[in-house]
Structure formats: structure tokens, C-alpha cells
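Usage

Read records sequentially. Each one opens with the input sequence:
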Amino acid sequence: MGFSSKRWAGRVATVASCVYFFIIIVQVPLFRFPCRIGTCETPIDVMTCQLIVSKIFPEIVVKALLYPGAIKRYLMEGAAILTPNQLLNSYKFNMRKASVTTDIKQLEVIAGSYLCVMGAFLGLVGRGRMSVFGLTLILCGIVKAIFTGRHCGKSACIYPEMMITMVVAFFCMRRDVRKLIKCYKPD
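and closes with the structure output:
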């Protein structure tokens, strides 16, 4: 029973995928960015804003995405737990009209949010690259917005949890983790 980099990489990637799924689904704040509901702090916030406006998916999908974060808020902050309908209605109530050009200016963050959420689900079945690409797009979009001055001051920032999530997303990629383990494999 020797050291197998393939087996260790599989274990590390599986644990990292579960942690990443938990971070995204429970809506741990990763960044702050202006969006249709005011300020979005998670990829699910950005994605649900777009899903509500576009009405591509039925409302039950949006409710299912939002509810784990509402439960976390209830447990962490002691806020009242809302029913799924009340939660969706509060998002719709806070929704602002925004033009298509506003969405195009924030395309990196919107596309990255979709990739993050889909990567969280696909990471559970063994595909982890989408998560890293999504987080990289979000990071580039927010940094670009900060440096170009579109969102100055307190309206756009990146929280330290974003960097931790980037590392976790990197460890979701089994093949890259295997190469990393082989580099440090004892002889």
C-alpha cells in the first residue's frame, strides 16, 4: 500500500469541491459590487438578479438558490427566516431598472457568477475548472471596475474570503492537484 498521487489528488479534489459548493450555496460574502438589487455580495446574488429579470428559469429555481443563504442569515444573524415566496418578493421589491448597457459593462462579473454557481454543482461530480474560471472573471471584473473608476469608494471591493475561495477552487481540479502532489512526493 504505497503512496498514490492519483488517490490523494482524488481525495483532495473531492473535499475541496464539497467546501466550494458549501461556500457558494450558503452565500458566503466574497465581494461587494453594485447590481440591480443594490449591492451584491455573492455570485448567487448576481445570478438571481439576472434570472429574475430574464425569467428564463421558473421562480422555483431562483427560490431554491436563495433559500440556503436565507437559512444561514437566520442562524448567523438571528434575522427572521422568510418563506421562499417572501424571500423572492423581497428581491423583486429591491430590484432596480437597469439598461442592457449596464449589464454589458458588468459582463465579467455576471458571467463569472454563472460559472461559479454552475462550477459548484459540477464540482460535485468531478469537474472543477469552471469554478476557477468563474472566480477569475469576477475578480478581473471587479478589479477593472475599481481601477477604471466606474465604481469608486465603497461600492466595489473584494473580501479576503474571495482569495480563500480561489485556493479552494484551484484544489477542485484533480489533475492539477495530482501534478502538485507529484512535485512534493517523497522519494
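Summary fields computed downstream for this record:
- The first strand starts at residue 31 and ends at 35.
- The chain has a mean pLDDT of 82.
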